[in-house]
Amino acid sequence: MVPGFTEGLMGALLAVRMPLVGLPDLDALHVALAVLAAAAGGLLAWRHHVGRQQQAARDRAEAAARAEAAARDALRDTTERYRSLLNHLSVGVYRTTPGGRIVEANTALARLLGFDDVEALRRRHVQDLYFDADDRDRHLARLDAHPTSSAEFRLVGADGQVVWVHDYPLAVRDEEGRIRFFDGVLTDITPHKMLEEQLRSAKSQAEELARLQSSFVANMSHEVRTPLTAIIGFAALLEEEVNEQHRELAQLVRQSGQRLLETLNSVLDLAQLESKALNLRLEPLDLVAEVEEAACLFRPIAQEKGLRFDLGPLPLAYARLDRACFHRILCNLLSNAVKFTAQGGITVSGTLEGTEVHLQVRDTGAGIGETFLPHLFEEFKQESSGLARSHQGSGLGLAITKRLVEMMEGRIAVTSTKDEGSTFTLVFPCLPQNGAPPTPRRLLHDAPATR
């Protein structure tokens, strides 16, 4: 209650009830008026106080209304920003219930599934969107066991088109641990799945081609190489039996057959390398002995052309190599050196550098042009081609050589100057040896061949 009002009111009430005994009439009237004045003052104070309280209440109500309006505006802005962000994402975003109702979705998800707008998508049941009805049950079971597990599955769009998606879901639970919603992101992986299918198909075709190639190589080896070897052998016999007039023809048959056999062998070897059908039999090899054996084959041919054939210093070294492949490498390099050298000679030498052995084949032949060097080890590439080429060959020897070297964990390099000669360097890891480190030694001292 308002202070003063209560006291004035109580005084007025008591004055009215109290008998005005012994007082003159005028004095009694004054007392009553004073009491009424006090009561009126208290009443005015009370009304003023109530007015202030009502104004304060109105102010608070207006402030609350303004705050509520500001909160609604803020919520509306936040919701608009949220929806704008969702609708500008390039991936599909959703919220669904455990029962399969779509609560929220963005424009990208509607577009991904071929719907005109989000509302059209929300009218669909989640189960109706799955291509395989069991996919959803399996996905929910995984999600229940692993709350952050992702999955790939197929969905069916509004137009019936099947879409592969990757789902990144999250189970939203209440305080009691029950799932209220599934929030997630869907990305379209249909192009990736199509690419995977193309890769699987290409892999299957490649495997089939490899099988056919292996079968072709085996058949060619038997059906062509065997009779061709017989032809070369009979031509060699004819050279000895026929008269001088026909010996040249027999020799031409033998040389042409030998050339064809070399080309066939190169093609078959390359086919084996490309199909990875060549199985290496690695064993410790005495490199000096292997080089000397190959040199013995080409020294007479070089001397026939009036060329020197020297074995320079060679280190006593062993390497783990395939004997047949290493022999083929040496023969390819020495054959080219003899073929492309018209005067001067060929030198084979080697050095031991750390844990590697370096073997070099040098010649003083035609050399290789600087522009052709980057293509030297490519298949069927020759510096001179066409009918005007100066030397015969298939252009496969060095390509095969490089592949064989690399299969045995080696390297091959070449330096060359046109019209001055070339140097091919083979590098292989050598096996450790007991005792003192090997020192270079010269095996043979070959005198220059007479011209």
Describe this structure in words.
The chain is α+β, with helices and mostly antiparallel strands and 451 residues long. The protein folds into four domains: 5-83; 92-188, PAS domain (Beta-Lactamase); 207-274; 282-441, Histidine kinase-like ATPase, C-terminal domain (Heat Shock Protein 90). The protein is 52% helix and 20% strand. The protein has eleven helices and 14 strands. The chain has helices at residues 5-17, 25-88, 107-112, 118-122, 126-129, 133-145, 190-241, 244-274, 287-304, 323-339, 397-407; strands spanning 92-96, 102-105, 151-156, 162-173, 179-188, 282-286, 308-311, 314-315, 318-322, 345-353, 356-363, 411-417, 421-429, 440-441. The strands form four sheets. Strands 2-1-5-4-3 form a five-stranded antiparallel beta sheet, with helices on both faces. A five-stranded mixed beta sheet has the order 7-10-11-13-12, covered by helices on one side. A hairpin with a 5-residue loop joins strand 4 (162-173) and strand 5 (179-188). It is elongated. The chain starts with a helix and ends in a 10-residue tail after the last strand. Mean pLDDT is 81; it is low at 16-21 and 435-451.
